[in-house]
Amino acid sequence: MTGLSAMDQWPTGPVDLLIVGGGINGTGIARDAAGRGLSVLLVEQDDLASHTSSASTKLIHGGLRYLEYYEFRLVREALIERERLWGMAPHIIWPLRFVLPQNQSPRPAWIVRLGLFLYDHLGGREKLPGTETVKLASSPFGAGLSPRGGKAFVYSDCWVEDSRLVALNALDAAERGATIRTRARLTGAQRSATGWTADVIDADGLTRQIAARVLVNAAGPWVADVLGRTSGSRNDRGVRLVKGSHIVVPQLYDGDHAFMLQNDDRRIVFAIPYEGNFTLVGTTDEAWGEAPGKAEIGAGETKYLLETIARYFARPVAEADIAWSYSGIRPLYDDKSANASAVTRDYVLDVDAGEDRAPMLSIFGGKITTYRKLAEHAMRELAPFLRDAGKAWTAGAALPGGDMPDADFERFLGGVEVRYPAIPLALLRRLARAYGTRVSAILGEARSVADLGEDLGGGLHVAEVDYLVANEWARTAEDILWRRSKLGLHVPSGTAERLDLYLGQRAAVAA
After folding, report:
1. DSSP state letter for 481
2. Is a pLDDT exceeding 50 seen at residue 215?
3. One MF term from GO for this chain (predicted)?
4. If you average pLDDT over residues 407-425, what whole number do you get?
5. Can you tell me the distance from the alpha carbon of 15 to that of 212, in angstroms, rounded to the nearest whole number?
6. What is the CA radius of gyration of the chain?
7. CA–CA separation, 114 and 136 (whole Å)
8. Euclidean distance between the first and final Cα of the chain, in Å?
9. Percentage of the chain exceeding pLDDT 70
10. Mean pLDDT across the stretch 238-255?
11. Element (DSSP H or E) covering residue 166
12. φ/ψ of residue 13, rounded to 5
């Protein structure tokens, strides 16, 4: 395995693809293209997954509610990808059962059951269990609900550590030859008939000129902004920004299942087991009329989610109980829907090219679940301009750490526990979940916890920090505590400051 010191150097000559945006779509395309033998440079103005791609509901799912809007193609594609991605990354993706109570549903039970029948059969489900009907009063699935009566449908989808999925795609891309540069911002790009010349400001404030055959605009909420910085770009595709917010509260119920809750306004809210002692609740859908940027939950969104909890669960939750909240701006393709919840979640790939204009691909919309297929479609759109590219290859190709026999995480974890008997089981499970088969790069020949170096707080040892800096572009405490992990929910006060101090000292030595 090659460290980033060899993988993050600026290219010395022209590249085939310059990709703008370090979210799931940008890193997915970088991985796909690099694996086809193309030279790739990806630039991201912040950290990987700094915005939309770390602010999802963290599901690999078909989008059951999209059936109401007749998005059958999107749902089918997502359902096919669901088990495929699980097999590619079983350490960060795993199945969940979702309970859909009907006692407060605005939809007739027969319509919901019909939708679930389609959901079970549209995408070639093989390993995930199908839908069942339960009586909430007598089923463990009803625990914690208030009122508990009536029936519920129980169906399957998958969970994903979203920001880690981004990091693993970037890592795989880099190990296949791509250059990934974070804290690097595109300021402008000029095109000719044969290619692009782009200006990029790096983390040191230096401007670099990059030559590229193709420019890929995967900037998410900033897609229109990037179009405005490129010469001769048409801008007749609309992007609609929608803010989605989530709250994390103390555990609302017992069990490892999730809930899909239906409100009177027909909107859907999920309640999902999260980080052991918490429940994740979301999402909202609000139109975002400001410039793209860091989003925060609003008072109205907080009230809406707390009212949903009060409507369905017995355990009371007040605003003071919220352990964490996060918000993201979704860059949806503007299909002119009046309702933000009804805006299509499908993606649109727009190729702008001509005899006198080098190609530019702009990406509107998309979902984490369909990112791999989106990347494959993107490469198909660009094939006329990249005739030396190899064939599609990512279907079923494991992501870093996911190459475990039969994609069986528990069996793999058992082997890790045997190899490291002196390391606490909780720490081994967390590390194995985060890094999969790459966990040995952190644990090495450790005979005890002391061999992992100083504990900077909450079981975050220097060995893990060093790995993240060397291999996953982590530069700050926020990168590590909230994107490469969610340790920010667990570490004691002062950990971020200790971590930033260590990172600063480490960077000074490296310089």
Report:
1. I
2. yes
3. glycerol-3-phosphate dehydrogenase (quinone) activity
4. 97
5. 5
6. 23
7. 20
8. 23
9. 95
10. 93
11. helix 162-175
12. -140, -170
